[in-house]
Amino acid sequence: MSRRIDYGSLMHAAMRGLIQQVLADVAQNGLPGAHHFFITFDTMHPDVELADWLSDRYPAEMTIVIQHWYDHLEVSDEGFSITLNFGDTPEPLYIPYDAIKTFVDPSVEFGLRFETAEVPDEPDEPDDPEPEPDDDHASRKEGEVVRLDSFRK
What we know:
Number of helices: 2
Helix content: 10-25%
Strand order of the largest sheet: 2-1-6-7
Number of strands: 7
Strand content: 25-35%
Mean pLDDT: 80
Distance between the termini: 45 Å
């Protein structure tokens, strides 16, 4: 059996670590300038905590905005908790980093998207040590590739 470096998982861990650092700074110092965040997360993730009426309204995913009013932002190694205002009703949420699908700060045109790879069922036969080339790379996408050329002037 050959060992492989799982770059997709490593990139996801690094990107989630970046989100943790940004939120920890905001929890300690507040949002700087025009920064604000749109965070989309999987409401079906087993560790997400939100009010029943919110999970009924958003059964698959939900996008929250951290901008003008938020309270009790607490950041841990596994996720963050925050109280947000929904129609003049403050609601506490807990969102694990693993549940995050997108993290966007439109004030600086920064965004991250997490894509999950489809995990096939266990094969009946042992894996071929040399997999055949596959032209359908999109179905196996584990992380988003950022092209550095887009940042060059």
